[in-house]
Amino acid sequence: MPLPAATRDALISLDVHFFEDEPLGRRVYWRVGGPADGFVLVRDLDALQQVIRATRDTECPSFLLGKGSNLLVSDAGIRGLVVSLGGALAEVRNLGGQPPRIQVGAGLALTALLARARKEGWTGLECFAGIPGTVGAAVVMNAGSHLGETVEPLVDIDVVNPDGSLHTLPKADLQMSYRTAHLPPGAVIARARFQTTGADPVQSQASVREFLLRRKATQPLNLPSCGSTFRNPPGDYAGRLIDAAGLKGFTIGGARVSERHANFIVNTGAATAREIRRVIEHVQARVEAFSGVRLRREVHYAGDWTEWPATTGSS
Ligand SMILES: Cc1cc2nc3c(=O)[nH]c(=O)nc-3n(C[C@H](O)[C@H](O)[C@H](O)COP(=O)(O)OP(=O)(O)OC[C@H]3O[C@@H](n4cnc5c(N)ncnc54)[C@H](O)[C@@H]3O)c2cc1C
C-alpha cells in the first residue's frame, strides 16, 4: 500500500532519505516477507525524534527494524513506515573511567561492537558473541547465551517515546529476565550504555573463539534462519523436545526443522513466511501433544497477518 500522503510530505520536509514499497526479504535473516509501505534510514537522534513525531501526527504506524535476525515478516509485508537506525545511532563512544563505560547507538551490529571491544581490549561484552543482531534489539530481547546476557553489562538506555520525547531508563526499570525486557509501549531504543570489566582480554577473546567454534559445529549457519525459534522452557531445551517429538527434518514447502539443530527452522531456498509460520505452529502442537510442554516463540512476528490463521496441515 502507498504511504499516507501526509506522512510522505512530512518525511520530505524532514529531509530524511526514504523509500516506498521497499522489499524486506533482503533485509531479514529468513529472507522472506513482503514490502514495507515506507522504509527510512535514520542517522541521528534528532531525526529519529522528528520521524517518530511525524508518524504520530499523521497516524501512520511505524516499526523499528534491526538486522531482522529475530523476525518473521508476513508475505503481505509491513503497513506503515519501517525505521532503521544508522549513522550516529550506530556509533560507539568511550565515556571514560577505568574500566571504561561505553555508549553505543542502538543500530550498531553486535559483531561490530565486539570487533571494537577486541581492538580496545574491553571485556565484559562476551554475552554478545555469535548473535547477529543490533544493540537495540539485544536489549529488547535480553539477548544472550551461555556466555551471559545483555542485562549483565547494561547500565541504562535512552528511549524515544511515541510523542518524540527522549527518556533515560536504568536497567532496573526494564525488569529483564530470560529473553525478556519490559519497555514502555511504543518506545524505540536509541542508545545504550554498558559497563566494561577489567577482566583479562586474552582470556575473554579465547572464550569467545571457543564458543563460536562450538556453534559452527552445532548450528546450521549455512542456511537462512532466525537462530533459536523457541525459548528454552525452564529446566529443559526446546531443541531436545522437538527432536524427541520426531520433528527433525519436518518440512512444509521451503521451511524445514533443521536436522542439525532442531530449534532452528531453516529456509531451504524458496520458503514463504506462511510456510515458516505453519512449521512453527505444527512444532508447537506436536511437542505439546508429545511432552505436554507448550513451547513459547523467541522469534517475533511482524507485519500484516490478517489472512492468518492458515488451513494447517503437514506435509
Ligand atoms: C544464526 C543466529 C544465531 C542467533 N543466536 C542468538 C543467541 O545466541 N542469543 C540470542 O539471544 N539471540 C540469538 N539470535 C536471535 C537474534 O540475533 C537476536 O534476538 C537479536 O537480538 C535480534 O536483533 P535484530 O537487530 O536482528 O532484531 P530484529 O529481528 O530486527 O528485531 C527484533 C525485535 O526487536 C525490535 N527492535 C529492534 N531494534 C529496536 C530498537 N532500537 N528499539 C525498539 N525495538 C527494537 C523489533 O521491532 C522487533 O520486534 C540468533 C539469530 C541467528 C540468525
In whole angstroms, the N-to-C terminal distance is: 33 Å
> What is the gyration radius calculated from CA atoms?
20 Å
CATH architecture of the largest domain: 2-Layer Sandwich
Summarize model confidence as the mean pLDDT: 96
In short:
This protein has about 325 residues and is an alpha+beta fold. The protein contains seven helices and 16 strands. The strands form five sheets. A five-stranded antiparallel beta sheet has the order 6-7-12-10-11. Strands 1-2-5-3 form a four-stranded mixed beta sheet, with helices on one face.
Mind sketching the topology for me?
Elements: H1 5-14, E1 18-23, E2 35-42, H2 45-57, E3 62-64, E4 71-73, E5 78-85, E6 92-94, E7 101-105, H3 110-120, H4 135-141, E8 144-145, E9 148-149, E10 154-160, E11 166-170, E12 188-195, H5 201-218, H6 238-244, E13 251-252, E14 255-257, E15 265-267, H7 273-291, E16 300-302
Parallel strand pairs: 2-5, 3-5, 4-16
Antiparallel strand pairs: 1-2, 6-7, 7-12, 8-9, 10-11, 10-12, 13-14, 14-15
Helix pairs in contact: 1-2
Bound molecules: flavin-adenine dinucleotide.
Flavin-adenine dinucleotide (FAD) binds at residues 29, 63-71, 106, 130-134, 136-138, 140-141, 143-145, 188-189, 221, 225-227, 300.
